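haha ok so turns out i had the wrong file open the whole time. this is the CORRECT one, sorry everyone. sequence first:
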Amino acid sequence: MKFGGRVLSLGDSYTIGEGVDEDFTWSKQLVDILNLNKQHFQNPRIIAKTGWTTGELAEAIEKEHIQENFDLVSLLIGVNNQYRGLSPEQYSIEFRALLKQSIKFVAGNLSHVIVLSIPDWGKTPFAKDRDQNKISAEIDTFNTINKEISTELNVNYCSITELSRMYFNDEYLVEDKLHYSGKMYALWAEEAFKAIKDIDF
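then structure:
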């Protein structure tokens, strides 16, 4: 790959890194790992915002009028669909469209797209007064959908949900007790790297 490979990360608060410095977002830490392994990537371009659903992410991408191709695209989206009580059926339709758009951004190079599963915010202290089992079950439903579509479209899939269920004490969270710290994002970056480490960029 020529020097200066381009990464596009699409998502919501988990991709923009709510509460952490940009150097500690999971996608920036993934780029750092790639570069340590003799790849040559620029800092990621991130299209993400806290609170975005699949529909809102799609609208934001359209407004960006992206013309160039990327060497790697990541997609992590859906927690706000669950949080707002939007239907799994709507999520399925909109997620599929987003994933197809992601594939276009890498010029159809399927192995250069990676989907991350939705973490389980129901395990965080923020959710202690809510029905945590219900949240977890709904997250599982949404992740079943995004995994099935990822498998169908033959892109990389990285499950980080179990990590979010294992590590949710203060060192893995930021001050709001809902969003994750750079330490958690480091674990995600490591898992994502495992899924794409054999790609010939």
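The CA atoms of residues 12 and 52 lie 5 Å apart.
again sry for the mixup
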